[in-house]
Amino acid sequence: MDTKDIREIKPQYNSFLVFLGNLFSFVFHPLFITTYIFIFLIFIHPGTFTGFEPRLKLFRFLTVFLFTTAFPAFSVFLTWRLKLIQSLYLSTTRERLIPYVLTMFFYFWTWYVFRNLPDSPPVTIHLLLGSFLAICGGWMCNIFFKISMHGIAMGGLIIFALLFAFTDSYSSGLYLSVAVLIAGLVCTSRLIVSDHSTFEVYTGLLVGILAQFIAWLF
Asked: How does pLDDT run across 152-205, given as a tens digit for each residue?
């Protein structure tokens, strides 16, 4: 079934639901998720970055933000301005190929840097490796169908919260509950406001889960 067919069979939602769907889709854009998790680990969680000076915490945060959010977003903007893609919304699988490759480079570099810093908490290395593997998985799936990038990010968020809850000394079911709630809101939003099918969203969730799980094994 092509994109046109999917749009034709989708129900019509009221404007308020569409507004909420677009809001959640933007606030929890895939490029923001790794940065959000690092904000939690660095500035909120009581144990992950214990002993780090405030300046070093800020530097680590800025490193992650620049290489997993700002630079990939700017790269997509440049490819659009250079007319290598037709839309910033990346509506087709073909338009997503170059952004996927560029994003893979930035995420790999971030993981490589943290992996070689002797004081990096192991959880951050697992997270960054899982994020990189998720993008690789998304890129491979994108060859065949337009997998949901939001779904990939949400799958990674859920399994990260689950694995972290089992290994964290300050574990709390609240982390996992919040992650599941966010994932539910975002995936529902994508089904409302995007042209993704349920298969593309659920496959995205599966890819994100597998990528983060594999990263924690290593």
From this structure: 999 999 999 999 988 887 777 788 899 999 999 999 999 999 888 999 999 999
- Specify whether the CB–CB gap between 214 and 130 falls below 8 A: yes
Q: Are 153 and 33 in contact (CB under 8 A)?
A: yes
Burial of 154 (0-12, 13-18, 19+ CB in 10 A): buried
> Cβ neighbours of residue 37 under 8 Å, at least 6 residues apart?
127, 157, 160
| Tens digits of residue pLDDT in 9-61 | 667 788 899 999 999 999 999 999 999 999 999 999 988 998 899 999 999 99
Beta strands in the chain (DSSP E): none
State the sign of the Cα–Cα–Cα–Cα dihedral 69, 86, 18, 160: negative
Supply the DSSP string of 27-59, one letter for each residue: HT-HHHHHHHHHHIIIII-SSTTTT--HHHHHH
198-217 vs 173-193: helix crossing angle, rounded to 10: 150
SS3 68: helix
Whether pLDDT at 8 is above 50: no
Do residues 58 and 85 lie in contact, with contact meaning Cβ atoms separated by under 8 Å?
Answer: no
